[in-house]
């Protein structure tokens, strides 16, 4: 055995040279791996005993991609492109033996071999687009040559991986092998030699790309198919252009085109934002005073109180992860309705072929409905999701404290109420916290874990683990009105309500906010949620546009009239001159003089309140770090990931510029625009939010 580098060895067995890579945890293609492959090929080619070469990885996976920690570092030779050229040019057959995941640079490496085999569980993908990039080591040129441009477009511009069966069907691998992978690879190499199979140099295998030449409809159709999901992102289009290059240019020229398109993305802010968000998401579970070895509680049985909008969705999260759930309601009707909604949701999933009918029954069997809180005596965790009403919540927590076993965790899904006040009615405030899910709770990834003043470290650590188990992005926040997400959201909402009084129309605001990258604007969103949420006829005092709309029976999409009109069965908002008049009349009464509000001003007045409130939240220690707020906004409020989140965006604009605008608005619009002290401080020190992450 020859030790090529600290991460690679070469052994010769039965005339086959085996380059074995061992670079834990995921055999990322860092320098020692690249150098190892290059030297291994060189030595195996020179060794007359070696007739064919296998590349195989130790540990849990094939090379799972480039080492993204090397991004932004000075390049260390040989680069991946160079190594892949060496592989491609090998005069002896090269075979990639794949287990685990061959993603990104890993798949590009496999594509540069002459043959590929994989175990049945292997996965193959080029997910770079998800980090705002494209595969930059020939993947956009080689993959279309192997699987054809249509399939390559899907894999490169959408970035979803495929399994071994599909990989075999599309020609990405030559064989699926069972049993010991190394033995299978040696046997496969033997077969290649015995059958005298020609070397398949992917770079010279032009049949599939030539067949697509001149057929621009392939690309037009694909562009249309991803238009909605790819809105605002630049990387998918560059991916498409690179694959077009594979069809229309010779291989070497195509590589150059790929490089240009890659560099464009690498130097742009979108990929920086997406890579930031990728790391930020992995950062959220790190809480400075909660070390990894914090003792945790064992949670198996969960109780959920309230089978309404939130309770039902929360229950689904837990049964999906295999927990048993006891669901409590006040009346049989409400319980039946709640369970019916859950069943219907699962049946819809089953009708799409994403689960079997047996799965539906299995999941439903994990939920037991009851009308008695006493049935929560033996659960390990309770999540209360009843009406947003402090006296009711206090009454329930008082009862839970008496009913539940003494080390059961008691959580509330409240949106705004004081978790400490709720905890105080129990004799175990250290076991109380908020678990704030977002609607629809079975779909939205965000979970705010609200840490009460007395919540114990064990309870918090357990909540973080539960968050992972139910596949949420769980962000720890402190107690204040609305916690982090809704507190920031309220500031934005107030400002948007204001801007339509000054002269912008709801349509203009919604268009600007949509074009910024949010899934919808604030007024379309209000119509969707229902204008009457939290509104009461008895106490309504015509003191806001919302009051006036509700008082005139406009409740939003649900009754076809809100800020917009809606035709039956159609969610498309239609501007309503009557609403415009109502807004104008109300504004005039309040003393506003109508003026034109520019799109640029709308963006600032939509986004800067988030930044300013986010800074105050950080000052108060309600959130651990700025990037946590960004993760909240990306996963809970539709902030476009390619802009990294409001705090990232502030740095992108320049915090000094943001501060200047805040001051300008403070003078013009009022003291609620007063800049957070933290922003003043960071600017005076020449720093940004990034310095606090
Ligand atoms: N809807 C949202 O978007 C959203 C998002 C996050 C958090 N929340 C919070 O979640 C909680 C529930 O909101 P929702 O939208 O699901 O409300 P909902 O009105 O849809 O459901 C509440 C359910 O609780 C039941 N209930 C009331 N008192 C009960 C009791 N004593 N015992 C058992 N069940 C009882 C009601 O019958 C009802 O089915 C609120 O605190 C709300 O602020 C809501």
Explain what you see.
It is built from 28 helices and 20 strands. With about 700 residues, it is an alpha/beta fold. Among the domains are: about 1-255, 2-enoyl-CoA Hydratase, Chain A, domain 1; about 300-480, 3-Layer(aba) Sandwich (Rossmann fold), CATH 3.40.50.720. It has an eight-stranded mixed sheet with strand order 13-12-11-14-15-16-17-18, sandwiched between helices. Strands 1-2-3-4-5-7-10 form a seven-stranded mixed sheet, sandwiched between helices. Strands 6-8-9 form a three-stranded mixed sheet. Helix 12 (about 270-285) crosses helix 25, helix 13 (about 310-320) packs across helix 14 and helix 14 runs antiparallel to helix 15. It is globular and about 90 Å long. The two termini are about 45 Å apart. Bound molecules: nicotinamide-adenine-dinucleotide. Nicotinamide-adenine-dinucleotide binds near residues 310, 334, 413 and 438.
